[in-house]
């Protein structure tokens, strides 16, 4: 253990896990919305490769990166890990904070109107963000 490094408490780790779960739920719903009824994307392997390399899915990159960064912070027991930057970044993606990413926001709003699962995942994420933003 390195001296002088603040460790993430188990409570913070659990709260971060809750945020990660909500973000992954939104990500999954957005992928399904983007794939739609495209017969080529009904195979899970084809869908995986499309999510990785197809430009139709590139707008979700900011959400994917946020999930990866949060998961890395949760896994790194020696890292200084505060949830505030992750809460802010998630809020920015949903348009609740300044600094909204225009392409993500536009495509997200289109998916939100098109797919009920995106609305449900958004509601779940908003509830988590609200709960985690409250002082403990």
Tell me what the structure shows.
The model is unreliable at 1-5 (pLDDT under 50). The chain has six helices and no strands. It has 136 residues and is an all-alpha fold. Helix 4 (84-94) runs antiparallel to helix 6 and helix 5 (102-114) crosses helix 6. The protein has helices spanning 10-35, 44-53, 61-75, 84-94, 102-114, 116-133.
List keywords for this structure.
136 residues, mainly alpha, 6 helices, 0% strand
Strand and helix map with partners:
Elements: H1 10-35, H2 44-53, H3 61-75, H4 84-94, H5 102-114, H6 116-133
Helix pairs in contact: 1-3, 1-6, 3-4, 4-6, 5-6
Shape: globular
Give me the Rg, rounded.
Answer: 16 Å
Structural class designation: mainly alpha
Mean pLDDT: 85
Strand content: under 5%
Question: Care to count the β-strands?
Answer: 0
Distance between the termini: 27 Å
Question: What are the low-pLDDT stretches, counting only 5+ consecutive residues below 50?
Answer: 1-5
Subunit arrangement of the protein: single chain
Order of helices and strands: HHHHHH
Main beta sheet? none
Helix share of residues? 55-70%
Number of helices: 6
